[in-house]
Amino acid sequence: MKLSDFNMTKEELIETAHKYLNESLMKRYDVVAQTGHDMYLVDATGEEYLDFIGGIAVNATGHCNEAVVAAIKEQADCLIHSSNYFYSIPQTMLAKLVCESIGMEKFQYQNSGAEANEAMIKLARKYGNDNFGPKRNKIVTAYSSFHGRTLATVMATGQPETAIQKGFGEVEGFKYAEFNNLESFEAACDDEVIAVMVEPVQGEGGVYPATKEFLQGLRELCDRKGMLLLFDEVQTGWGRTGDLMAFMSYGVKPDVVSMAKALGGGMPIAAICASERVMSTFGAGAHGTTFGGNPVCCAAAYAEVNEIIEKKLPENAKEVGAYLKEKLAELPHVKESRGMGLLVGAEFDSDIAAELKHLAADRHLLFTVIKPNTIRMIPPLIVTKEQCDTAVNILKECLNSIS
Ligand SMILES: *Cc1c(COP(=O)(O)O)cnc(C)c1O
What we know:
four-stranded mixed beta sheet, seven-stranded mixed beta sheet, alpha/beta, binds pyridoxal-5'-phosphate
């Protein structure tokens, strides 16, 4: 039987899902995702949902972008996987395109955001070991950051005592400091610290953009102490904040940057980029991956990156994102709307985010909840001002219905 032969009711599907799927992330939306196009996620009955989640900041060019779909089909027809034992055009040309577009020298493939950050952590620790000896391997990260769900990235995530960290024991080598507080970072950077790792805009932790002074100060601090500056751009990368990478918006260049979410147009692909000097720390045998740089994922990413550049989606993100942020600020019960480009959060005067999310989904608008009082909107970068008006109006109706 083929998957397309299954003809189940929504209730049957949900019952089967509950029987077999372990739900470790969150309660799902009451929506069966069947197809998608542009800004819309479509369920099995053809109902369209205006999607301000975009696969969690993944579908930058919208659902089922034509160029991305064509690239996947074409590559799948000729070769699906060959491993990193061989050279290939998709892998090589994507690395070249990315490095040249963002002004980096070297590229290393990974499969997910957490894995890219894990590679970045490994690279920094080995760099410390090789240049300064085995004691210098600590990394300072920020409170309310999010860096992923592998054991090391969970510990890099500055959220002690939350479900993300609790119960998983210790991984040595991480210290936390206050985000946007340079003195706090300076104080944490003793002579065992080899790197500082931050998101230019904190995403999962509450949508907090770094100030320019903070990132410039970190750059200066790292240069002064011989430390590496690591940017986690898994969420901010590839157009979301108004430039190809957020570090370009800030004019602060990291030594290593990680990327994932929007890179593959929905296919699982991630990477780290670094200067040649730093990346050379990973000599033969020091790091690797079976799936990383898979040709189908690379083909999708190559098409996605070209679409992002050719359609000037970073510019759209900047303009429409500023508009969305302004419109959200005008809503009743909104204490603050904040963010950069199309990574936007709205904080309310009480803990109504979860209720709003369900009310909005019933009205066919999707967004995420990041705190009991804060929602986050991370739509595809093709979103228009009119679609933002629609979303804000639906949210207003929801707010009126609970207040
Ligand atoms: C989503 C995210 C990650 C984790 O990426 P996965 O692909 O889920 O492993 C890491 N860092 C940031 C900033 C993220 O937004």
